[in-house]
Amino acid sequence: MPAQGTSGWVPLVDPAQAERRPHSPSVRRVVGRFVLANLAAVILLLAGGAWAGVEAAEDEALADARRTTDLLAVLLVQPNIGEPLLAGDPAAIADLDAKLPDRLARVGVIRVKIWDADGTILYSDEPRLIGMSYPLDEEDKRALDDGVTRAGVSDLGRPENRFERPFGRLLEVYRHIDGPGGQTLLLETYSTYGQATARQVEIWWEFVPISAAVVLTLVAVQLPLGFRMVSQLRNTQRERELLQQRSLDASTEERRRIAGSLHDGIVQDVSASALLVARAADELRRDQAGGSPRQVAEVLGEAASALRASVGSLRSLLVEIYPPTLQRAGLPMALADLAGRLRPRGVDVRVSVPDDLDPPPDVAELVLRTVQEAMRNVVKHSRAHTVEVTLTQTPAALVLEVTDDGVGFAGAPVAAETRDGHLGLRLLADLAAAHGAGLDLRTAPGAGTGLRLTVPLP
């Protein structure tokens, strides 16, 4: 009976940590994307801050212009408007001209216009505009009606603004004022946009430290993440390269094993058959010189038997490489075929498989590969007389156990060195890990060997 061993099961692959590793992009590509994403975020942050600064500066400049115009209207313009000024009296116009320029210059106002409700300019510090009539726009009319001071960037394309064009971009403010006889008048002032520009610079310099702090914090937070990501990618890439190398080693070992099987088995049998056929030919030649036909028939019979044995060996090798019964008759029949190959070698193989077993194709292939490797080790190393193959299925997992009563070996060191040691165990461990399965080893010198494969089911 198979030995149970005393050392217990030693895990070669932990199913909780085994998983299929997805293909990962190159480190250079991921780091490049990471850097570009951060640069894009910084550029968007700075652009948003600049836009917000421009808007805030312009709004603040317009608010300052509205306050300035309100003060001019209440303190300077409205108290100095009389009937002579509205009638176009040159003396009244000259008197207001003498009072306005210095005070306007101190508050940054470069042009003043006073309109009546019909769109006639009653006064301006630009004398060529006095007496000219232009249609009032909707904003001007609303300012006359509701008395709310309004401001905006001046439209220098309008004809009444032609004399302001040399000053460049301007802030325009218009508000309602009352004439000496209760007339509804409109005061309009123009200020240089330089106030808004200067305020933009001030806000920008206030915003720069905040932006720099945010950017530096963002970089400081993401740099460790970036380095960690690069490290993980490099580890993943190294593991992929190691798995590829192991696959190459396993493929080389499999080719070496097949070549050895062909050389030691079929090639030798065919060579012997060739010698027997050559001997028969010699006998035929001697027969023509008086030899015995019976001897020729015996030699040819031996050659035929050797060739039949060679064909049988070749078929067995083909079945081992890819068992046709796995797809045609299912896993239980394929395991029975494997067991039948060991019985002629004096090994009693007992297979216990549920009748209703129907695992997924990839799981069935994994189980078959594991049993193949275990039986190959029995033939090569264990010198066992009995092997038990037990397959059980639960709703959560499929469990395979292959145990023998052979010589065993020191299992713990082998398990610890599976990645660099025994190629068969290393191959099985890689296969189990690739399928998310667990693999355990139980063995000890003189106590036989056991392998247990645990495959989670979906």
From TrEMBL:
Presence of keyword Transmembrane helix: yes
The entry's keywords: Kinase, Membrane, Transferase, Transmembrane, Transmembrane helix, Two-component regulatory system
Bilayer-spanning residue ranges: 30-52
Molecular function terms from GO: phosphorelay sensor kinase activity; protein dimerization activity
Renumbered residue ranges of the record's region Disordered: 1-21
Keyword tRNA-binding applies: no
Domain annotation Histidine kinase: ranges: 367-458
InterPro entries membership: HATPase_C_sf, HATPase_dom, His_kinase_dom, Sensor_HK_TwoCompSys, Sig_transdc_His_kin_sub3_dim/P
Pfam families named among the record's database cross-references: HATPase_c, HisKA_3
GO CC list: membrane
This protein's name: Integral membrane sensor signal transduction histidine kinase
